[in-house]
Specification:
152 residues; 5 helices
């Protein structure tokens, strides 16, 4: 086995070699599969790329999310490439590959659009400042929602 085996693994996205890990650094490896039994680890020598490692080990993890009502939502996250770990403020593959996180992101984006629309609409801002106007708007929106739900 080579002294620094990871330096020979090409990065599939950029075709660059992964930088060797210096002797004064530590490589942290975590388990992203729950179906591995403890004991002697298996030595696998035929893995040449990071993609080969993902294909061989098929990392996945079960996660319990808490929804807005306080309930538990169980989901299995699967990782097929390094980009699947990226969150990037809700724009990464981690969110994209998760049904629960995608739903949360959609709600956040919708609320942000509504807030921006309210901030830019002077008449609506004026209505929301007045308590009577707020109540009238609430009644109107509820009636509109009922109409939309009944037309399904």
């Amino acid at each position: 086995m080579k002294e620094n085996f990871i330096s020979m693994a090409p990065d599939e996205e950029s075709n660059a070699k992964v930088s060797p890990i210096d002797n004064n650094k530590t490589l942290m490896i975590d388990q992203y599969t729950s179906d591995v039994e403890p004991g002697n680890p298996e030595l696998v020598e035929d893995i040449q790329t990071i993609g080969d490692a993902f294909a061989r080990f098929k990392p996945s993890v079960e996660v319990d999310f808490v929804d807005e009502d306080g309930g538990s939502v169980n989901e299995t996250l699967r990782f097929n490439e390094l980009r699947d770990f990226e969150a990037q403020g809700g724009k990464g593959r981690l969110v994209e590959n998760s049904a629960f996180l995608s739903g949360v992101k959609k709600k956040i984006d919708t609320n942000a659009k509504i807030r921006k629309s309210i901030e830019q609409n002077r008449k609506l801002r004026d209505i929301l400042k007045d308590s009577t106007g707020r109540e009238e708007l609430k009644v109107m929106l509820k009636a509109l929602l009922e109409e939309l739900e009944s037309s399904k």
